[in-house]
User: Which sequence fits this backbone?
């Protein structure tokens, strides 16, 4: 166990040795290595868009698409190399696109960012529920 500052044994107190007074903290903070850390976050405290499995599933889809250069975009049928870059010059990249735009429960497939972002931009006006 790591001690910083005076050590207590019963009612007696002893100063820390000189070498330990200016020592860097252990890599695990003030807890012992292997001690259970409170990393569990209840679902209620997470924002709604982080409660599901989207981020895990989309990462797996992107990784699989990046691993195979013959992967085709489900929306247009082109490979990533065949896609034009974005308007700002950035190259297209793989994203996980929903088969039904705007439906978070819809299955996802590999989709080039140029197709996915433009499809999202086209559907924005119809997705709002508020009358401005």
Assistant:
């Amino acid at each position: 166990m790591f001690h910083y500052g005076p050590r207590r044994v019963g009612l007696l107190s002893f100063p820390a040795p000189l070498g330990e007074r200016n020592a860097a903290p252990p890599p695990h903070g003030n807890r012992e290595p292997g001690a259970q850390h409170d990393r569990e976050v209840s679902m209620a405290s997470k924002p709604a868009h982080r409660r599901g499995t989207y981020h895990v599933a989309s990462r797996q889809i992107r990784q699989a698409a990046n691993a195979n250069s013959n992967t085709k975009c489900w929306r247009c049928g082109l490979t990533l190399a065949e896609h034009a870059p974005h308007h700002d010059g950035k190259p297209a990249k793989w994203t996980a696109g929903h088969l039904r735009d705007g439906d978070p429960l819809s299955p996802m497939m590999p989709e080039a960012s140029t197709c996915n972002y433009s499809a999202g931009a086209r559907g924005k006006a119809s997705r709002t529920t508020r009358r401005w």
The chain is about 25% helix and 10% strand. The mean pLDDT is 75. Residues 70 and 79 are 6 Å apart (CA to CA). Residues 48-124 form one domain.
